[in-house]
Design a protein that fits this description.
Blueprint (H helix, E strand, L loop, with lengths): L1 H18 L5 H11 L1 H18 L1 H4 L31 H37 L1 H16 L2 H12 L3 H27 L3 H8 L4 H37 L11 H8 L8 H28 L8
Length: 303
């Protein structure tokens, strides 16, 4: 009897001590993310892509624009690890420099679409009424066009190049960000803490900046990371069609297009840039899925 009393005395404070240390939301999100192996794989791919793009002049073995006609479509070897293209340029170096274009277009386009589309969705969702109707019908008009056709029309009107491609990808993404943000705002503006802040006299700018915007950042981060993959695919498609990045600048889509005529005799000219696109898109999709699972409280018991 004495032993059981001591056990109850010694174990009770430990239980109380453990219960007195609640986990922070950020720590809980990080813990769930780290336990997701696919998410970590996606993060690794994205980090390696970023490092490759930043350090391209250092890690690229050759000048991506240097042409050696005697090595036209050379097979992979010690001199050309991934072979050479139809003009005798090192494929590995061009893939490394092409990562800069893919990442630059994706980051700038998604960032611009987040700001513009997010602003439109924020205003439309909070204001409601005719403002919501007008803004959302404009977004519906853009969504009515097939995404590739819309991008081709924009690039045809603006011209080719990295800057014009970025603008086209951003315009294509704006309606989707606007609809996502609007849906979040419509839900949040009816929450008790927002209604209480409004009853206490909080003005519209304070309601938007303090009580609503911080609560839609997590969904926007997840949506943006997933949309990075779509932006890279669209840039590659435009470059493949000759409307995006122009030679001699390195672009994965342009490399695939230039090597498609030699696919049967020298498949490495097209295969390796295609693999780079596939791995990059896979990395952003895995990262986005991992962020979604980690930030969704409904999936807390999954990991």
């Amino acid at each position: 009897m004495h032993i059981s009393t001591r056990e109850s005395i010694t174990t009770e404070p430990r239980e109380i001590g453990l219960a007195a240390k609640p986990r922070s939301p950020a720590g809980d999100v990080a813990r769930r993310f780290v336990r997701n192996r696919l998410a970590l794989a996606g993060l690794f791919i994205v980090v390696m892509l970023t490092i490759t793009a930043i350090a391209a002049p250092v890690i690229a073995p050759k000048d991506p624009a240097a042409s050696t006609l005697g090595d036209t479509r050379a097979r992979p070897s010690r001199e050309y690890l991934l072979g050479a293209d139809e003009l005798g340029r090192d494929i590995l170096s061009r893939i490394i420099y092409g990562s800069r274009v893919a990442l630059l277009v994706a980051v700038l386009a998604v960032g611009a679409a987040t700001l513009v589309g997010g602003g439109i969705g924020l205003i439309a969702g909070f204001a409601g009424g005719w403002i919501d109707e007008v803004l959302m019908r404009l977004m519906d008009i853009l969504l009515a066009f097939p995404y590739l056709l819309l991008a081709i029309a924009i690039v045809s009107a603006l011209g080719s190049g990295v800057e014009k491609t970025t603008i086209a990808v951003a315009i294509w993404a704006v309606p989707n960000f606007a609809r996502v943000v609007r849906g979040q705002v419509l839900t949040l503006k009816e929450r008790d803490y927002v209604l209480a802040a409004r009853a206490l006299g909080a003005r519209t700018p304070r309601l938007l900046l303090v009580h609503i915007t911080p609560n839609i950042i997590a969904p926007i981060i997840v949506f943006g990371s997933l949309y990075m993959a779509n932006a890279i695919l669209l840039e590659a498609a435009l470059s493949f069609l000759g409307l995006g990045v122009q030679p001699p600048q390195a672009s994965w889509g342009l490399m695939v297009a230039s090597g498609r005529d030699f696919l049967r005799v020298d498949p490495h000219v097209t295969t390796f840039p295609g693999i780079a696109i596939m791995i990059t898109v896979l990395g952003f999709n895995l990262l986005g899925d991992g962020l979604r699972d980690a930030m969704d409280p409904r999936l807390r018991n999954r990991f």
